[in-house]
Design brief:
Blueprint: H1 7-21, H2 32-49, H3 58-64, E1 72-75, E2 81-84, E3 133-135, E4 142-144, H4 145-153, H5 160-170, H6 178-187, H7 190-209, H8 211-214, E5 228-233, H9 234-245, E6 254-261, E7 268-275, H10 283-286, H11 295-315, H12 323-327, E8 333-340, E9 357-360, E10 375-381, H13 396-403, E11 421-426, E12 432-435, E13 442-446, E14 462-467, H14 475-478, H15 484-498, E15 513-516, H16 528-542, E16 546-549, H17 556-569, H18 574-584, H19 599-602, H20 608-615
Parallel strand pairs: 9-16, 10-14, 10-15, 15-16
Antiparallel strand pairs: 1-2, 3-4, 5-8, 6-7, 8-11, 11-14, 12-13
Helix pairs in contact: 4-5, 6-11, 7-9, 7-11, 15-16, 18-20
């Protein structure tokens, strides 16, 4: 390799070479030329970002780190280039002596022979794919990104700034890292920060780099209008989420072609479809914030780090006082199943009656425990599963996804949920307890999931991801939920989700009690009384019981109990409820001219409970 004029780049090459050769002695090179090519590629990556070469000394970093911001170089009086600070920010730095002795991470040029590499819109595009490439600036040379990722993650990372620099080496399209930096430097104690960089972060890297060994088969995208199941082991999920943590995933989904038929002729055709999948890389969670990182976002970080710590104890033989507890848990599996409803019930013809319904004034859906019942726990989902879990969101779905972090992997392969679809998830383990909600959400303590597992190794936790229609906070727009088409949409979706699907180990359908609450209310703008009645009707039609949590909404519990009692005593059928609802919402479904006498009255939302009580 030719000598470089820039002495700082020369120092960087020495550092990179030392990282690859000294710290990773089993690095497999094809030729000396390949080593040069890779180092040149790393240099080009640095140049393209205007980064100053990383200096590992604590003294240098404490003096010059700018919380991950880019530097502008200027000359001092002696004519030497020095980094210019834009802002004085203290960053904790872990010295080399603080790192414990760890087994080296091997880097391989070749993927395992049994790794099946698929790169299209219908499968997860893996970071370790040979088709995940990048080009060197200045020429047309194409290099494998996974080789670069391995090189970067094999080295030690001493601070939040170095973590940002490391990820920036192979992913130049991130949102930033200010939130994570604030958490590591301000929210954690010095002892916790040291533990993160010395133990937790290297173990996350180990999980990430084992990806081609544990995920050898392609993972299907759960695309719209196709019923399909994805099942993953907990180790596979840990590896996938570790890659999400290091932001290694390429963009998923896109356009593809499916075999279909003409609507009227049934002739086979090739149909182009767009598959939209949420982003799973954690950089949105790491970034976004101006000012101090909010406490509820710091709580999300704590949930995720706690998950990786527990998984490290379980799978990587890390030493910890909790190891004995973790040894009680064997590796299991988690299944994700997309369900599609082809035809909804004839609601007006139904003779089903209201079943058993328990109303709880307090408590949480995920805390349901009973010796006599098994629960299907509702996730008040966004149609883009996970909602704002990797951003600012911190309400029901987002909280569930961080206390049961294995749910997060669904973002990788679940396309946007359509109006006639739901997603059923079984086996996601809970790792954290929490307090608060939304802005007051805080991590509280470890949770050790004691639920039994089925014959496939899945924990007996059943979660239904079911998205309600969005009506927002505009009163005019909220009134649209009283349209017949909107009510039918919600009824059909709830019926699909509530209907028995899971089977026990003997092959018998399990009749699960649905644990739900104010689905589609709050941020989605649903009216509590209407949404409650819709779920009562769907549960009756599906033949399942309900446990309904009112979450402290004033007056809701008493009114709901009164209505349920009347409906049960009078043996009111689902068909009768349907006819009553249609009568109630008729003003919102007829065309009116401006100035009609009933125009002003119809702008007020009907009181669903009161209307039904008067009716029956």
């Amino acid at each position: 390799m030719e000598d470089m004029e820039d002495p700082e780049l020369g120092e960087m090459v020495k550092e990179l070479s030392k990282n690859m050769q000294d710290k990773v002695p089993d690095y497999e090179y094809d030729t000396d030329e390949m080593v040069e090519e890779e180092i040149e590629a790393l240099i080009d990556e640095y140049k393209s970002k205007n980064y100053t070469p990383s200096k590992k000394s604590s003294k240098y970093l404490e003096k010059n780190v700018d919380n991950g911001k880019k530097y502008e170089a200027k000359k001092d009086k002696k004519g030497e280039k020095t980094p210019t600070k834009k802002k004085e920010v203290k960053v904790r730095v872990i010295s080399d002596s603080q790192f414990k002795k760890m087994e080296n991470l091997s880097i391989s040029k070749q993927l395992a022979e049994d790794f099946e590499d698929v790169w299209d819109a219908f499968h997860v595009r893996m970071p370790c794919s040979d088709r995940n490439t990048y080009s060197q600036k200045g020429n047309n040379k194409v290099l494998k990104r996974w080789y670069l990722i391995q090189t970067v993650l094999a080295g030690r990372i001493h601070s939040s700034t170095e973590l940002e620099e490391a990820i920036g080496m192979y992913n130049d399209n991130t949102y930033g890292f200010k939130g994570l930096s604030d958490f590591l430097n301000d929210d954690l104690s010095q002892e916790e920060t040291t533990k993160f960089f010395v133990e937790t972060l290297p173990n996350i890297a180990r999980f990430a780099l084992m990806l081609p060994k544990v995920c050898k088969a392609p993972i299907d995208i759960l695309i719209p209008n196709v019923e399909k199941e994805v099942e993953l082991s907990q180790l596979q999920i840990a590896s996938l989420l570790a890659n999400a943590f290091f932001c290694t995933f390429p963009k998923q989904g896109g356009f593809g072609f499916i075999d279909s038929t003409e609507e009227f002729t049934d002739e086979p055709i090739r149909k182009k479809v767009k598959i939209s999948v949420p982003e799973i890389n954690f950089d949105r969670l790491f970034a976004v914030y101006e000012g101090e990182c909010p406490k509820n976002v710091c709580a999300k970080f704590r949930c995720l780090l706690h998950y990786f710590e527990r998984m490290s104890i379980r799978f990587l033989n890390a030493t910890n006082q909790s190891k004995k507890k973790e040894e009680e848990f064997k590796e299991g599996k988690v299944s994700f199943h997309r369900l599609v409803l082809l035809y909804g019930p004839d609601w007006d013809k139904s003779h089903k009656t209201v079943g058993n319904i328990q109303v709880d004034d307090g408590g949480l859906i995920e805390d349901c425990v009973s010796l006599d019942e098994t629960y299907l726990e509702l996730d008040f989902a966004n149609k883009s599963i996970g909602g704002g879990v990797l951003g600012r969101g911190c309400i029901q779905e987002e909280i569930r996804f961080v206390v049961n972090p294995e749910l997060l992997v669904s973002l990788l392969f679940t396309a946007v949920i359509e109006d006639h679809e739901v997603v059923l998830i079984k086996g996601a383990e809970r790792f954290s307890n929490y307090t608060g909600y939304a802005q007051s959400f805080l991590w509280d303590s470890p949770h050790f999931d004691k639920k039994k597992r089925d014959s496939r190794g899945r924990i007996e936790t059943y979660i239904l991801a079911m998205d309600a229609a969005f009506f927002g906070h505009s009163e005019e727009f909220r009134l649209k939920q009283f349209q017949r088409t909107k009510i039918t949409r919600e009824l059909n979706k709830a019926y699909l989700g509530f209907h028995p699907y899971f089977k026990d180990d003997n092959g018998n359908l399990q009749k699960l009690t649905v644990s739900t609450g104010n689905w589609g209310c709050g941020a989605f703008g649903g009216f509590h009384d209407l949404k409650a009645v819709i779920q009562i009707m769907a549960a009756a039609e599906a033949g399942v019981d309900l446990r309904y949590f009112t979450f402290g909404v004033v007056g809701l519990s008493a009114s709901l109990k009164e209505l349920i009692t009347v409906l049960q005593q009078r043996s009111v059928t689902v068909g009768q409820l349907w006819e009553a609802l249609i009568e109630m919402v008729r003003p919102f479904n007829s065309k009116r001219k401006k100035g009609d006498e009933d125009d002003e009255a119809s702008e007020q939302p009907p009181q669903t409970f009161n209307f039904l009580l008067d009716k029956f």
